[in-house]
Amino acid sequence: MMMTRPVLAVDVLRHSFGEAVQEHIPLAPFTSARIGGPADILLTVKSADELAAAMQLIWEHEIPFYILGGGSNVLVSDEGFRGVVLLNRAKEVRFEAGEQPTVWCEAGVVISNLANRCASKGLSGLEWSATVPGTVGGAVYGNAGAFDGDMTHNLIWAELLTRDGRETWPLGQMGYGYRTSVLKRGESQGIVLSALLKLKNATKEEVSVKISQFSERRKATQPPGASMGSMFKNPAGDYAGRLIEAAGLKGTRIGNAEISTLHGNFFINHGETRAEDVHALIRRAQKTVREKFAVNLELEVELVGNWNV
Protein backbone atom coordinates (compact mmCIF):
# COMPACT_ATOMS: atom_id res chain seq x y z
CA MET A 1 0.00 0.00 0.00
CA MET A 2 1.49 3.34 -1.04
CA MET A 3 2.17 5.72 1.82
CA THR A 4 0.73 9.00 0.57
CA ARG A 5 0.10 10.76 3.85
CA PRO A 6 3.13 13.02 4.41
CA VAL A 7 2.83 12.70 8.19
CA LEU A 8 3.61 8.97 7.99
CA ALA A 9 6.61 9.58 5.74
CA VAL A 10 7.87 12.26 8.10
CA ASP A 11 7.67 9.90 11.07
CA VAL A 12 9.50 7.13 9.20
CA LEU A 13 12.32 9.40 8.01
CA ARG A 14 12.64 11.54 11.13
CA HIS A 15 13.19 8.42 13.21
CA SER A 16 16.43 7.82 11.28
CA PHE A 17 17.45 11.32 10.13
CA GLY A 18 16.15 13.70 12.81
CA GLU A 19 16.45 17.39 11.98
CA ALA A 20 17.68 16.68 8.45
CA VAL A 21 13.98 16.17 7.67
CA GLN A 22 12.05 19.39 6.95
CA GLU A 23 8.44 19.92 5.89
CA HIS A 24 6.81 22.21 3.29
CA ILE A 25 10.09 23.67 2.01
CA PRO A 26 10.05 25.73 -1.24
CA LEU A 27 12.31 24.13 -3.84
CA ALA A 28 13.05 27.30 -5.85
CA PRO A 29 16.22 28.18 -3.84
CA PHE A 30 17.64 24.73 -4.61
CA THR A 31 17.28 25.02 -8.40
CA SER A 32 19.42 26.93 -10.89
CA ALA A 33 16.26 28.49 -12.38
CA ARG A 34 15.08 29.66 -8.93
CA ILE A 35 11.63 28.32 -9.75
CA GLY A 36 9.43 25.78 -8.00
CA GLY A 37 6.85 25.19 -5.29
CA PRO A 38 7.30 23.32 -2.00
CA ALA A 39 8.17 19.71 -1.30
CA ASP A 40 6.04 17.97 1.29
CA ILE A 41 9.30 16.75 2.81
CA LEU A 42 12.90 17.81 2.16
CA LEU A 43 15.60 15.44 3.41
CA THR A 44 19.24 16.52 3.18
CA VAL A 45 21.75 13.67 2.99
CA LYS A 46 25.49 14.26 3.40
CA SER A 47 27.03 10.95 2.34
CA ALA A 48 26.45 8.12 -0.09
CA ASP A 49 25.68 5.88 2.88
CA GLU A 50 22.98 8.28 4.10
CA LEU A 51 21.52 8.48 0.60
CA ALA A 52 21.41 4.68 0.38
CA ALA A 53 19.82 4.36 3.83
CA ALA A 54 17.19 6.97 2.99
CA MET A 55 16.35 5.30 -0.30
CA GLN A 56 15.95 1.91 1.33
CA LEU A 57 13.39 3.39 3.74
CA ILE A 58 11.63 5.22 0.91
CA TRP A 59 11.39 2.07 -1.19
CA GLU A 60 10.33 -0.05 1.78
CA HIS A 61 7.43 2.28 2.55
CA GLU A 62 6.67 3.15 -1.10
CA ILE A 63 7.04 6.91 -0.58
CA PRO A 64 7.10 9.06 -3.73
CA PHE A 65 10.56 10.66 -4.10
CA TYR A 66 12.80 12.81 -6.25
CA ILE A 67 16.57 13.29 -5.90
CA LEU A 68 17.86 16.84 -6.33
CA GLY A 69 21.56 17.55 -6.74
CA GLY A 70 22.67 20.90 -8.14
CA GLY A 71 19.16 21.71 -9.32
CA SER A 72 20.08 22.34 -12.96
CA ASN A 73 18.20 20.81 -15.90
CA VAL A 74 14.99 20.63 -13.85
CA LEU A 75 11.79 22.65 -13.84
CA VAL A 76 9.77 22.17 -10.66
CA SER A 77 6.03 22.83 -10.94
CA ASP A 78 4.36 25.66 -9.06
CA GLU A 79 2.57 23.06 -6.93
CA GLY A 80 5.91 21.57 -5.89
CA PHE A 81 6.42 17.89 -5.19
CA ARG A 82 4.05 15.60 -3.29
CA GLY A 83 6.45 13.31 -1.49
CA VAL A 84 10.10 13.39 -0.40
CA VAL A 85 12.78 15.40 -2.15
CA LEU A 86 16.25 14.16 -1.29
CA LEU A 87 18.80 16.97 -1.39
CA ASN A 88 22.07 15.22 -2.19
CA ARG A 89 25.00 16.87 -0.42
CA ALA A 90 27.31 13.81 -0.44
CA LYS A 91 30.63 15.37 -1.46
CA GLU A 92 33.57 13.11 -0.59
CA VAL A 93 36.37 13.05 -3.21
CA ARG A 94 39.46 10.82 -3.47
CA PHE A 95 42.19 11.18 -6.08
CA GLU A 96 44.45 8.31 -7.17
CA ALA A 97 47.74 9.33 -8.83
CA GLY A 98 49.75 7.25 -11.28
CA GLU A 99 50.17 6.68 -14.99
CA GLN A 100 46.38 6.42 -15.28
CA PRO A 101 45.07 8.86 -12.62
CA THR A 102 41.48 8.61 -11.41
CA VAL A 103 39.11 10.40 -9.11
CA TRP A 104 36.39 8.75 -7.04
CA CYS A 105 33.61 11.04 -5.92
CA GLU A 106 30.23 10.87 -4.28
CA ALA A 107 27.22 11.82 -6.37
CA GLY A 108 26.59 15.17 -4.66
CA VAL A 109 29.93 16.66 -5.74
CA VAL A 110 29.44 19.77 -7.91
CA ILE A 111 31.09 18.76 -11.18
CA SER A 112 32.42 22.23 -12.06
CA ASN A 113 34.15 22.37 -8.67
CA LEU A 114 35.62 18.93 -9.32
CA ALA A 115 37.01 20.09 -12.68
CA ASN A 116 38.76 22.99 -10.97
CA ARG A 117 40.17 20.70 -8.26
CA CYS A 118 41.56 18.50 -11.03
CA ALA A 119 43.16 21.56 -12.63
CA SER A 120 44.85 22.50 -9.35
CA LYS A 121 46.48 19.05 -9.36
CA GLY A 122 47.51 19.15 -13.02
CA LEU A 123 44.95 16.52 -14.02
CA SER A 124 43.06 16.85 -17.29
CA GLY A 125 40.00 15.20 -18.78
CA LEU A 126 37.19 17.07 -17.03
CA GLU A 127 37.81 20.52 -18.49
CA TRP A 128 34.57 20.27 -20.48
CA SER A 129 32.61 20.15 -17.21
CA ALA A 130 34.09 23.31 -15.67
CA THR A 131 31.15 25.38 -16.89
CA VAL A 132 28.50 22.68 -16.47
CA PRO A 133 26.04 23.24 -13.61
CA GLY A 134 24.93 20.34 -11.48
CA THR A 135 26.48 17.37 -9.72
CA VAL A 136 28.43 14.26 -10.61
CA GLY A 137 25.32 12.17 -9.92
CA GLY A 138 23.27 14.19 -12.38
CA ALA A 139 26.08 14.06 -14.94
CA VAL A 140 26.32 10.27 -14.66
CA TYR A 141 22.53 9.89 -14.78
CA GLY A 142 22.05 12.04 -17.89
CA ASN A 143 25.44 11.73 -19.66
CA ALA A 144 26.06 15.45 -19.27
CA GLY A 145 28.43 17.06 -21.71
CA ALA A 146 29.81 20.23 -23.28
CA PHE A 147 32.55 21.28 -25.68
CA ASP A 148 32.77 17.81 -27.32
CA GLY A 149 33.22 16.09 -23.95
CA ASP A 150 30.78 14.06 -21.89
CA MET A 151 30.62 11.38 -19.22
CA THR A 152 31.15 8.68 -21.86
CA HIS A 153 34.79 9.79 -22.04
CA ASN A 154 35.35 9.82 -18.27
CA LEU A 155 33.25 7.22 -16.52
CA ILE A 156 34.96 3.98 -15.51
CA TRP A 157 32.16 2.78 -13.26
CA ALA A 158 29.28 4.08 -11.20
CA GLU A 159 28.10 2.71 -7.88
CA LEU A 160 24.32 2.45 -7.92
CA LEU A 161 21.72 1.51 -5.39
CA THR A 162 19.06 -0.76 -6.87
CA ARG A 163 16.25 -2.69 -5.24
CA ASP A 164 18.73 -5.59 -5.04
CA GLY A 165 21.33 -3.54 -3.12
CA ARG A 166 24.54 -1.74 -4.05
CA GLU A 167 25.93 -2.54 -7.49
CA THR A 168 28.92 -1.42 -9.54
CA TRP A 169 28.00 -0.65 -13.14
CA PRO A 170 30.80 -0.32 -15.71
CA LEU A 171 30.52 2.30 -18.46
CA GLY A 172 28.98 -0.14 -20.93
CA GLN A 173 26.08 -0.93 -18.64
CA MET A 174 24.95 2.71 -18.55
CA GLY A 175 23.62 2.58 -22.11
CA TYR A 176 24.80 6.10 -22.87
CA GLY A 177 23.50 8.12 -25.79
CA TYR A 178 23.32 11.85 -26.43
CA ARG A 179 22.34 13.32 -23.03
CA THR A 180 20.72 10.08 -21.95
CA SER A 181 21.25 6.70 -20.28
CA VAL A 182 19.31 3.57 -19.37
CA LEU A 183 18.49 5.35 -16.10
CA LYS A 184 17.18 8.51 -17.70
CA ARG A 185 15.19 6.53 -20.26
CA GLY A 186 13.64 4.49 -17.46
CA GLU A 187 14.94 1.20 -18.88
CA SER A 188 16.70 0.42 -15.59
CA GLN A 189 16.08 1.64 -12.05
CA GLY A 190 18.94 2.80 -9.85
CA ILE A 191 20.24 5.66 -7.72
CA VAL A 192 23.75 6.97 -8.44
CA LEU A 193 25.77 6.93 -5.21
CA SER A 194 29.30 7.54 -6.48
CA ALA A 195 31.51 7.24 -9.55
CA LEU A 196 35.09 6.55 -10.59
CA LEU A 197 36.31 8.82 -13.38
CA LYS A 198 39.45 8.54 -15.48
CA LEU A 199 41.77 11.49 -15.86
CA LYS A 200 45.11 12.25 -17.59
CA ASN A 201 48.36 13.67 -16.29
CA ALA A 202 49.06 17.20 -17.48
CA THR A 203 50.25 20.48 -16.01
CA LYS A 204 48.24 22.98 -13.96
CA GLU A 205 48.88 25.59 -16.66
CA GLU A 206 47.61 23.43 -19.53
CA VAL A 207 44.41 22.49 -17.74
CA SER A 208 43.75 26.01 -16.43
CA VAL A 209 44.19 27.55 -19.88
CA LYS A 210 41.72 25.09 -21.41
CA ILE A 211 39.17 25.77 -18.66
CA SER A 212 39.58 29.53 -19.18
CA GLN A 213 39.01 29.13 -22.92
CA PHE A 214 35.84 27.11 -22.36
CA SER A 215 34.61 29.63 -19.78
CA GLU A 216 35.11 32.52 -22.21
CA ARG A 217 33.26 30.65 -24.96
CA ARG A 218 30.42 29.92 -22.56
CA LYS A 219 30.16 33.57 -21.49
CA ALA A 220 30.16 34.74 -25.11
CA THR A 221 27.41 32.38 -26.28
CA GLN A 222 25.17 31.70 -23.28
CA PRO A 223 23.16 34.18 -21.24
CA PRO A 224 23.73 35.05 -17.59
CA GLY A 225 20.89 34.90 -15.11
CA ALA A 226 18.72 32.17 -13.65
CA SER A 227 17.93 29.40 -16.12
CA MET A 228 17.66 25.63 -16.32
CA GLY A 229 20.55 25.29 -18.77
CA SER A 230 19.83 24.02 -22.28
CA MET A 231 16.07 23.59 -22.55
CA PHE A 232 15.94 21.17 -25.50
CA LYS A 233 18.21 18.46 -26.86
CA ASN A 234 19.79 19.29 -30.20
CA PRO A 235 18.01 17.45 -33.03
CA ALA A 236 20.21 15.23 -35.22
CA GLY A 237 22.32 17.41 -37.49
CA ASP A 238 20.97 20.69 -36.15
CA TYR A 239 20.78 22.91 -33.07
CA ALA A 240 17.70 23.65 -30.99
CA GLY A 241 18.86 27.23 -30.45
CA ARG A 242 19.22 27.83 -34.20
CA LEU A 243 15.73 26.48 -34.89
CA ILE A 244 14.17 28.61 -32.14
CA GLU A 245 15.95 31.71 -33.47
CA ALA A 246 14.94 30.91 -37.07
CA ALA A 247 11.35 30.60 -35.86
CA GLY A 248 11.54 34.18 -34.63
CA LEU A 249 11.08 33.26 -30.98
CA LYS A 250 14.11 34.85 -29.31
CA GLY A 251 12.92 37.45 -26.84
CA THR A 252 9.45 35.93 -26.56
CA ARG A 253 8.15 36.47 -23.05
CA ILE A 254 5.34 35.08 -20.93
CA GLY A 255 5.14 36.66 -17.49
CA ASN A 256 8.70 36.97 -16.23
CA ALA A 257 9.94 34.02 -18.30
CA GLU A 258 11.78 34.85 -21.52
CA ILE A 259 13.44 32.96 -24.35
CA SER A 260 16.91 34.51 -24.22
CA THR A 261 17.82 37.10 -26.84
CA LEU A 262 21.39 35.77 -26.77
CA HIS A 263 20.72 32.03 -27.15
CA GLY A 264 17.36 30.57 -28.15
CA ASN A 265 17.80 27.35 -26.17
CA PHE A 266 17.96 29.19 -22.84
CA PHE A 267 14.83 30.33 -21.00
CA ILE A 268 15.52 33.04 -18.42
CA ASN A 269 13.80 33.74 -15.12
CA HIS A 270 13.62 37.52 -14.74
CA GLY A 271 12.34 37.24 -11.17
CA GLU A 272 9.40 35.61 -9.38
CA THR A 273 8.70 33.55 -12.49
CA ARG A 274 5.94 30.94 -12.42
CA ALA A 275 6.86 27.48 -13.61
CA GLU A 276 3.66 27.45 -15.65
CA ASP A 277 4.85 30.48 -17.62
CA VAL A 278 8.07 28.65 -18.50
CA HIS A 279 6.01 25.61 -19.43
CA ALA A 280 3.84 27.74 -21.71
CA LEU A 281 6.99 29.05 -23.42
CA ILE A 282 8.20 25.46 -23.87
CA ARG A 283 4.94 24.49 -25.56
CA ARG A 284 5.01 27.58 -27.78
CA ALA A 285 8.58 26.87 -28.90
CA GLN A 286 7.78 23.22 -29.63
CA LYS A 287 4.59 24.09 -31.54
CA THR A 288 6.18 26.87 -33.63
CA VAL A 289 9.30 24.87 -34.55
CA ARG A 290 7.16 21.85 -35.45
CA GLU A 291 4.90 23.96 -37.67
CA LYS A 292 7.74 25.85 -39.40
CA PHE A 293 10.38 23.14 -39.73
CA ALA A 294 8.62 19.80 -39.03
CA VAL A 295 11.05 19.17 -36.15
CA ASN A 296 9.93 17.92 -32.74
CA LEU A 297 12.04 19.51 -30.02
CA GLU A 298 12.67 17.07 -27.19
CA LEU A 299 13.15 18.41 -23.69
CA GLU A 300 16.58 18.08 -22.11
CA VAL A 301 15.15 19.60 -18.93
CA GLU A 302 13.23 17.28 -16.62
CA LEU A 303 9.75 18.31 -15.45
CA VAL A 304 9.31 17.65 -11.72
CA GLY A 305 5.95 17.59 -9.95
CA ASN A 306 2.46 17.68 -11.45
CA TRP A 307 2.05 19.07 -14.98
CA ASN A 308 -0.78 19.34 -17.48
CA VAL A 309 0.98 17.87 -20.49
Beta-strand segment tally: 19
Oligomerization: single chain
- Tell me the strand percentage band: 25-35%
Architecture of the largest domain, according to CATH? 2-Layer Sandwich
Biggest beta sheet summary: 5 strands, antiparallel
Rg, rounded, reads 20 Å
Count of discrete structural domains: 3
Number of helical stretches of at least 4 residues: 7
Q: Structural class of the secondary elements?
A: alpha+beta
* Shape descriptor: globular
Could you characterize what this model shows?
With 309 residues, the chain is of the alpha+beta class. It folds into 3 domains: 6-88, Uridine Diphospho-n-acetylenolpyruvylglucosamine Reductase, domain 2 (2-Layer Sandwich), CATH 3.30.43; 93-220, Uridine Diphospho-n-acetylenolpyruvylglucosamine Reductase, domain 3, CATH 3.30.465; 223-304, UDP-N-acetylenolpyruvoylglucosamine reductase, C-terminal domain (Uridine Diphospho-n-acetylenolpyruvylglucosamine Reductase, domain 1). Helices cover 28% and strands 26% of the residues. The strands form 6 sheets. It has a 5-stranded antiparallel beta sheet with strand order 6-7-13-11-12. Helix 3 runs antiparallel to helix 5.
